[in-house]
Structure formats: structure tokens, C-alpha cells
Amino acid sequence: MGAEQVAERFTQLYGTEPEGVWAAPGRVNLIGEHTDYNDGFVMPFALPHQALAAVSRRTDGVLRLHSADIGGGSDGVTELRLDTLAPRSDDNWTAYPAGVVWALREAGHEITGADVHLSSTVPTGAGLSSSAALEVVIALALDDLYGPGLPRRQLARLCQRAENVYVGAPTGIMDQTASACCAQGHALFLDTRDLSQRQIPFDLAAEGLRLLVVDTQVKHAHSGGEYGKRRAGCEQGAALLGVGALRDVPYADLDAALARLGDEEEVVRLVRHVVSENDRVERVVSLLRSGDTRAIGPVLTEGHASLRDDFRVSCPELDLVVDTALTAGALGARMTGGGFGGSAIVLTEAADVDAVTKATEEAFTASGLTPPRVFEALPSPGAHRLT
Ligand code: ADP
Ligand code: MG
Fold first, then answer.
1. pLDDT score recorded for residue 222
2. 175, 215, 279, 352: which is the annotated catalytic residue?
3. Which ligand 1 atom is at minimum distance from the Cα of 51?
4. pLDDT at res. 1
5. What is the pLDDT of residues 73-98, one digit of tens each?
6. CATH assignment of 3-199+381-385, given 3.40.50.20, 3.30.230.10, 3.40.640.10, 1.10.290.10?
7. Is 175 an active-site residue?
8. CA 39 to CA 172: how far, in whole Å?
9. How many CB atoms lie within 10 A of CB 107?
10. 122 CA closest ligand 1 atom index
11. 56 and 115 in contact (C-beta within 8 Å)?
12. DSSP class of residue 162?
């Protein structure tokens, strides 16, 4: 799927050529999990998988939406009036792009309508942020066409607002910022407190390394409620420690902080994960900056153990990927994303990709599970205009 095909399909649907075609990637988080709602650090990079959108302006207050990947309506085109867009009024996929239009208008930007045709290669519901790719590609297109020229991080904020308020999904700021701001060959070191960011060189290919994304294709049903519980537990921890957010607990003070929490066993585990995870992000940043890419492997694996044992958001399928990959010679592995299913990442020598992939497939088959989908993810460009 390329820009030309997306533009052609747009023309078939709407009878005119689009004004432009834009792309926004999905992302994978290298390290920094469940830190974003604690004002902490994350480190995503952009996937080669992207949402593409062909878009034209309209002047009549109408938004027309079509996805190559999802049906709907008689010709598949959903038509909405901008003046009727309201939070939670829509539980279809169209809520994501409509929410972005709503958020832009709410922020005072004049949008008078649009025709949109979308097509995405980001797997949905795999923890790879197909939703953010969708939001960001629409936000960037409308920003370009209607001209507010907003900074990328502000576009990301508007997309987050679309997802939180309009769609009604309580997500942090990482996904949208990653899709909007990542750069090829780099990971994005993002401070979710003030959105300050640094591009950290992460040129796997040049070092003979590969990062595999292993999509378990399972999603355990209780994930939504568990996410809310972890979030509430972290807030409780911050309140008990008298800090605004767990980000404010320095790693050097972790033991003292845990001692203060006493027998609040659940909160102790959550705090230990968040504070140590922020430290792991900083360790990965300094290792990458000193060119020691292979040495991040054990830090990734340590992060998995913390998510599994302290934060308790892993699941047997994710643990199986990590254990099998490490046994097969991977340098490091961990679950990525919210947990309870979705994907794991595996850092490996390029020469070991086949062995790791095969071992993982065999382990799943031996456990009576459907083998996961495995693909290589080299750090790819963030959102951009194609035509
Ligand atoms: P994730 O972001 O991890 O992939 P989410 O549940 O946040 O999972 O978002 C997935 C939802 O985003 C889908 O259920 C669908 O509503 C929407 N979506 C993603 N990609 C597309 C697409 N190509 N076309 C239409 N809707 C999409
Ligand atoms: Mg999402």
C-alpha cells in the first residue's frame, strides 16, 4: 500500500483527487512501561507500519470518513456533521478521526469539513498504537491543510484529548507523541511530565542487531479494569509518599520510600516498578549514548521481570515469548505496551533472528497456542506528508 493507491481509492470514493496524502506510524516502546501516567520517562520508536490518509478540505461542515480496513454504511463512507460531534457519541472506529476534528475545533482552530480515506498497516489491538497512528495522521493532515501549523507535541496533545475525551479511552501521552515526533534510526526519550524530548541514536541495522516484535495475538478480557486499578494504585502510592507523582521519587530514595509504605504490599510493588522503570529508561539512554547498544538487553529483561512480578501485568503468553527468546540466545526481551496480551519485543543479533523466531513458534505450538506473529522493527520515521 502506497500513497498512490490511497489517493486513487480516495478519487474513486469522492470523485476528486485528494489535496494530499499523509503518513503516521505505529510505535513500539523500547523501555518505560506504565510510567507515562506517573509523569515518568518512556522511550518509544516508530514502526515501519503506518496509517496513510488521503484528505481534502470541505467548506460545508461535513466530515466524510472511509477506511480501507473496516467496512460500514452502504458504500463504507460514514458522513458526520461537525456541529453534532460530541464526546462518546460514537463507538465506531470513526470516533478516532472524528475526535481529532472535534479536539482541533474545541481548541479554537477553524475546520470546516474534510473528506478522508484511510488505510493502515499497523496491526490493531496488538499494543502497537494503531489508534494513535490514525489520530496523528488526521491531525497532521488537517493542520497542514487548514494551516494552524501547530508544533508536533501540541498535535499529540490534541490527539490524546481526542482519545481520552471523545473516544473515552484513558491513555497517556506516549503513543501520540511517538507517532508525531519519532525519527528514523532513533528512539525518542520522552519526559511525559513536560513533554521535553531527545532523539537517541538507535541504529540497530548498522550494529548488526535486530528488534523483533512478537505479537501474541491474545488480549485478555480483564485488561481495561486492571489498567484502572494499577493507575489508582500508583496515585495512592504518590499520595502516601506526599509527592505529586511517582516520578518525583528518585531511584536513590527507593528503599526509603518503600519502607515508608510499610505493609501496603500492593502499593509497594507498584511503586517499586515505576521508580525502577524510570531508572531503567535512564540507564538505556546512557548506554545508547555511549554506543553500547548490546548492553541494553539485560535492562530490557529486567524490566520484564518487574512488570511480571511487581506490576503484575504480564501473562503466560508474554512470559513464554521472553523465556523462549532468551533461551534461544536473544540479548534481551520484554513485554511492551499495557500488558495482559499484545506484543513482546526481543533484541537479538541479526544472525540469530531465525533461531529465535523458530524457537518461539515451536514453544507456542508445544503449549497448544497459535504461534505468534513475528516481525522486524527498525526505528522508522515519524508522521510526515507524502504528497
Ligand atoms: P491499539 O492502538 O493498541 O492498536 P486500540 O484499541 O487503542 O488498540 O485501537 C484500535 C482501534 O483503532 C480499532 O478497534 C479501530 O477502532 C481503530 N483503528 C485502528 N486502525 C484502523 C484502521 N486502519 N481503520 C479503521 N479503524 C482503525
Ligand atoms: Mg491505542
1. 72
2. 175
3. 23
4. 76
5. 557 999 999 999 999 999 999 999 99
6. 3.30.230.10
7. yes
8. 9
9. 13
10. 20
11. yes
12. I
